[in-house]
Amino acid sequence: MKKECIIYPCYFNSQSTREQGRRVPLSIAKPDPSMKDIVIALKKHRLSYQVEEKSHPGYWWKKDGRAVVTHTGSKQELLCKLARDIVVKEDPMKFHRIRLKRAKKGETGEKQTNFKKRAKR
Question: pTM for the complete prediction?
Fold first, then answer.
């Protein structure tokens, strides 16, 4: 019998606790997954789904979205199967933002060399 399961991105977030909404073990959770990452995992498993612009009841101010998945079996099995295949894409501008922050603080990331020679004793 097929049933619908609602899946939110916070279920897979390794930066949140079980009380905050994580539903998978920390060993397979990913840092801050997006709905796009979850959709890629759903496509990989060839599951039928529908994405909606809704928010998790515990995080009503975040409009992360949710997926309504038609699935046979338990919801926990589905979540664990998807969590193993979620690949979180790194932000391409993250490296440049870090460099800009360091430049503003005066940090260049390069080692400063001391050209003074030590006196022999």
Answer: 0.69
